[in-house]
C-alpha cells in the first residue's frame, strides 16, 4: 500500500469513527437537554450507586439553549432542573432543585424536593431502557422526555408533565419565593413532603401497594399530568420502556403547551405522542430538531465511506 493510500485509509477511519460516534458494534445512547423556559435553568444529574458517571453533573442552560450528552452503557440515574440560582459569598445555591454541593456541578448530590424528576435505567431487564417522569418528590418545572430513534418494542413513547402546576398548586403544598409577590408559587410539594405521614409517604403500615392508595393530593398531580408518577405505587401508567439500540432521549424544560404540528405531520401520524390534559401534543419542529441533531448519521453516508475505504485498500 502506498503512503498516499495509507494516509487516505487513516483519514477515512477517522471520518467513520467521528460520524458513527461509537466503536463498531456498540449501541449509542444520548440525552439532548433543552431549555425552552423564558429563564435560565440549571440541570442537575445524579448517577445511581454503581453506575458509570456522566461527563457533567450540573450546568447552566440559558433560554433556548440545548446540550447533548453521551450516556454510558447501563447508566441509571435521574435528571432535573434547578431554578432561581445564585452565588452568595462564593457558594452556589438554588431556590428549587438545589443539590447542596455549593457549585453548579452537583458532584453526587441529589435534588432537594420539591422537584420534577426524570428517571432512567438504560440497558435494564431484557436489554430495555426504562424511564419515567416523577412528581413523587413534588414539582418545580414542566418537563417532557421524548425518545428518538429507538428500535421497535416496549412502551416507547413521550412522557412528562407539561402543565404549569406552580400557579394551581393547593395552598398547603405551595412553595412561595421570598422575592415573589404574595402567594407567588415557585414549586409544589408532595403531600409526603408537606405532612410527613405514613399514609402519604407510603411507609410503615402503608408501605405496600395494597395499603398505600392515591390521595386527593396525588390525584391533583395525576389529573394534570396523567403519564407522570404521582405517588410511590403509580407504576402501571407511569413507567415507559424502549428497546435497546441507538436512542436519543430529548428532555425539554418548559415544552410548548400548545398543540404544534411539526412540518408534514398529521394528527393521524402522531398517534405515539402523549395525551396531556386530554389534549394531543405535537412536538414542535424545534424540539424534534434538537433530538435529530444527536441521532446517528444515515447508513447511506457510512456505506459510501466504507466503499471508498474498500477501494483504497485494493
UniProtKB/TrEMBL annotation:
InterPro entries for this protein: Osmotin/thaumatin-like_sf, Thaumatin, Thaumatin_CS
Record-annotated membrane-spanning stretches: none
Keyword Chaperone belongs to the record: no
Domain of life: Eukaryota
Signal peptide location: 1-21
The keyword Metal-binding is annotated on this UniProt entry: no
Keyword annotations of the record: Signal
Pfam families assigned: Thaumatin
Entry protein name: Thaumatin-like protein 1
